[in-house]
Write a structure and sequence with these properties.
Length: about 450
């Protein structure tokens, strides 16, 4: 059964901070859409943004977002396209201020309403929550947050559709959020446009599925696919567009003029991405049952999604906490024919022996041989008798920085004090990096009070 009637076109323009910069521009320029939604935030991104804000109180948001709006906002205003993004990171207010300046510089003063959502950032509330008995235990290990309290770098609750809908109801053409669920960026405008009741679980669950398809950008339109990828045009790939209908059914498509592909396999691959229990895909607004999803190839680059069932949400919100878990460095060295793999293995034995002699006490030392089955291990099958080159990749981690610094000097010494034909070290010593670990937790919804404000540029 096909679907008809008025639809709302919600286009994905960003799957992560660092995604293709031209994707949102192409979504706005090439064809009709009603909403452009952009997801910038992974769990580790929040800690990066928090460190930036600690260095400069005006920072802490996805800075790519502001010049992007400088490019597309005039056309969005002309076409009536609303923009929803979680680019605010840990500093949505500064992001809002920068967007206001950009809109004014683009000659849009008085023409654009900018909404901003706050209330997800829990960094300054952690001790208060702990004192109230909210332990924020690790969902995987059951450990209390007090175990890592002194090393926490960010803590944010995942907000749902409510604050986004509130901003849209107040006329916001651009909605800037901090940590929302990735899916809410898509299903919030669906709920708003179709006036779905907050307890219509099946329709909201359909919106959640649409959001899950949209959230990773081109991964739903042939990017990263394992199905006939050789025939896909990646140079100007079209990102997904959700054509949402009031009854909860929707079409996954893309702009016809752009590359990529929308098929049942490409959509299915994205649906399986980051999937836990398919019976309980939990969001702040409902619990979606992914086992009920039905897909049908309606036409070329048009997949109909229907039959989704949902249930009420829980009384908790997920919290993403990041904390400092030590330091790491990863170094590489390339060895050439003849005996490339044997040379790389000898180099690994050499550096491990030197590190052990120094007694530095690394928590882990990990080695890979790129070009010799590193990706697939035994599944790669028998290796050629004499590989032309092999890259030794060795990494270490430690709770303190000085031992990792020493490792970076030890690997450099392999150039002359190790096996022959070493090359590929022109970049110098590897960089020491902080290791950020993820701590998933839950907080009662009653503890979180999102705030929404709207200002005219």
């Amino acid at each position: 059964m096909s679907i008809s009637g008025k639809s709302v076109r919600i286009a994905s323009g960003q799957g992560f901070w660092g995604d293709w910069l031209e994707a949102p521009v192409r979504q706005v320029e090439v064809g009709p859409i009603d909403y452009l939604v952009m997801d910038y935030l992974a769990e580790v991104t929040m800690s990066i943004l928090q460190k930036q804000r600690n260095r400069d109180p005006s920072q802490g948001y996805a800075r790519d977002f502001v010049p992007l709006l400088g490019r597309i906002l005039p056309l969005c205003v002309e076409k009536g396209v609303r923009v929803i993004a979680n680019a605010g990171g840990v500093n949505p207010l500064s992001c809002r201020d920068a967007v206001l300046e950009t809109a004014q510089a683009a000659g849009l003063a008085g023409q654009v309403r900018i909404g901003v959502i706050t209330g997800d950032d829990l960094m300054e509330r952690l001790d208060d929550l702990l004192s109230q008995g909210v332990e924020l235990r690790n969902m995987d290990t059951g450990e209390p947050l007090t175990m890592v309290r002194d090393r926490i770098q960010s803590a944010n609750a995942y907000l749902g559709a409510g604050p986004i809908i509130a901003a849209l109801e107040r006329g916001a053409e651009v909605v800037i959020a901090g940590r929302t669920t990735d899916t809410a960026l898509t299903y919030a405008p669906m709920m708003f446009e179709h006036a779905w009741p907050a307890d219509d679980w099946d329709k909201i669950a359909a919106g959640v599925v649409a959001g899950h398809i949209n959230e990773c950008g081109a991964q739903a339109t042939g990017g990263n696919t394992g199905v006939d990828w050789q025939s896909i045009d990646y140079s100007d790939i079209g990102y997904p567009i959700i054509e949402s209908h009031a009854d909860g059914q929707f079409i996954v498509t893309k702009h016809e003029a752009l590359g990529g592909r929308v098929t049942v396999p490409t959509v299915s691959e994205q649906l399986l991405y980051e999937m836990g229990d398919p019976a309980e895909y939990i969001t702040p607004d409902c619990t979606a049952d992914f086992r009920t999803i039905q897909l049908e190839q309606e036409a070329v680059d048009r997949v109909r999604v229907f039959g989704v069932r949902g249930a009420p949400p829980t009384e908790m919100l997920k919290v993403s906490v990041s904390y400092l878990a030590g330091y790491k460095a990863v170094g590489t060295m390339t060895y050439s024919w003849p005996d490339a793999l044997e040379k790389a293995r000898a180099a690994d034995r050499t550096i491990r022996a030197r590190l052990e002699r120094l007694g530095l006490g690394f928590a882990e030392v990990h080695t890979e041989y790129l070009g010799a089955g590193a990706c697939h291990g035994p599944l790669a099958g028998p290796l050629p008798p004499d590989l032309p080159e092999v890259e030794l990749r060795i990494g270490v981690k430690h709770s303190e920085r000085p031992p990792v610094d020493r490792f970076t000097r030890e690997i450099a010494a392999l150039i002359l004090a190790g096996p022959p034909t070493a090359t590929g070290f022109a970049g110098g010593r590897p960089r020491v990096q902080e290791m950020v670990a993820y701590w998933p937790a839950l907080v009662p919804k009653k503890q979180i009070e999102p705030r929404v404000s709207v200002e005219v540029a």
